[in-house]
Design brief:
single chain, about 240 residues, mainly alpha, about 80% helix, about 0% strand, globular
Length: about 240
C-alpha cells in the first residue's frame, strides 16, 4: 500500500476519502441506501419534484405567449432552454440537504453512512430528479417555442453531460449551504456563479443542436471537462464539508 501523501488537512481528507472508497466493500450498498431513502421520501411528498416541474413547465409557457408567432434564433433558444433548466434545478436540488437539517436527520445520517456514500447517493438522487424534470420540460419547451431540433444526438449528449455537472455541483454546494441560516438563498447565491461556465457551454452546444453554426464537439468537450473538475472537487472536498 502506498504511503499516505502529504501532511496537510486537504491531502488527508482526499486520502481518507479514496482509501475508504477503495477498501470499503459496503460503500456502494451504503450509497444505494442513501439514494433509495431520499427517493422514497421525495416520492411521498414530491416537494422538490413538484417545485422544479412547476417552474420548468411554467417558464416555457410564459415565453410562448411573449414570442407568439415569432421565430427565435437557435442561439436564443439554446440560452433560454438552459436558463429554464438551471433555475428549475436551483429550485429543486437544494432540498437534498436542506431537508436533512430541517427535519433534524443530518446528525443521524452522518452517524449511519460514510461521507462518500452520502455524496454519491445524494448525487444520484439529484441526477434522477433532473432527468425526470427534463423528460417533461424539454419536449414542452420544444413544442411551445417551435424549436427545430436539427441534431437530436447533440441535444441528448448536452442534456446528459449538463445534468452530471448540475448534480455534482448542486450536491457539493447544497451540503455547504445547508449548514447556514439562510439556506435556500445562500445555495442560489453561490451556485449561479459556479454554474455559469456550464450554462454558457451547454447553451452553445444546444444552439448547434437547434441549427446554429458552431463546433458542437468543442462545446461538449468543455462540458465534459467541467463535469470532471466538479466531480473531482466534490470527491475531495465533501468529507471536509459534510464533517464540518
Amino acid at each position: 500500500m502506498s504511503e499516505r501523501p502529504g501532511d496537510s488537512h486537504f491531502s488527508n481528507v482526499a486520502w481518507r476519502s479514496w482509501r475508504s472508497w477503495r477498501f470499503n466493500s459496503g460503500a456502494w450498498q451504503a450509497a444505494r441506501a442513501v439514494f433509495v431513502r431520499d427517493w422514497h421520501g421525495e416520492w411521498r411528498t414530491r416537494a422538490a419534484l413538484n417545485s422544479a416541474l412547476l417552474f420548468a413547465v411554467a417558464a416555457p409557457l410564459a415565453l410562448s405567449f411573449n414570442v407568439a408567432n415569432q421565430k427565435l434564433a437557435p442561439e436564443t433558444l439554446g440560452g433560454a432552454l438552459w436558463s429554464v433548466l438551471l433555475f428549475a434545478a436551483l429550485v429543486g436540488l437544494s432540498r437534498a440537504f436542506i431537508k436533512e437539517e430541517e427535519s433534524g436527520t443530518a446528525a443521524l445520517l452522518k452517524l449511519s453512512a460514510p461521507p462518500e456514500a452520502v455524496l454519491w447517493g445524494k448525487m444520484a438522487f439529484n441526477l434522477a430528479l433532473l432527468a425526470l424534470t427534463q423528460i417533461a420540460a424539454v419536449p414542452i419547451f420544444i413544442v411551445l417555442l417551435n424549436a427545430q431540433v436539427e441534431s437530436p444526438s447533440v441535444l441528448l449528449a448536452t442534456l446528459i453531460l449538463g445534468d452530471v455537472g448540475l448534480a455534482a455541483t448542486s450536491t457539493l454546494l447544497g451540503a455547504m449551504a445547508a449548514q447556514a441560516r439562510a439556506r435556500g438563498a445562500l445555495f442560489s447565491a453561490i451556485a449561479v456563479p459556479v454554474l455559469l461556465p456550464l450554462l454558457v457551454t451547454a447553451s452553445a452546444a444546444t444552439s448547434t443542436a437547434f441549427g446554429a453554426r458552431g463546433d458542437a464537439n468543442l462545446a461538449l468537450v468543455a462540458i465534459a471537462a467541467y463535469d470532471a473538475a466538479m466531480l473531482a472537487a466534490a470527491w475531495m472536498l465533501f468529507d471536509f464539508v459534510w464533517s464540518a
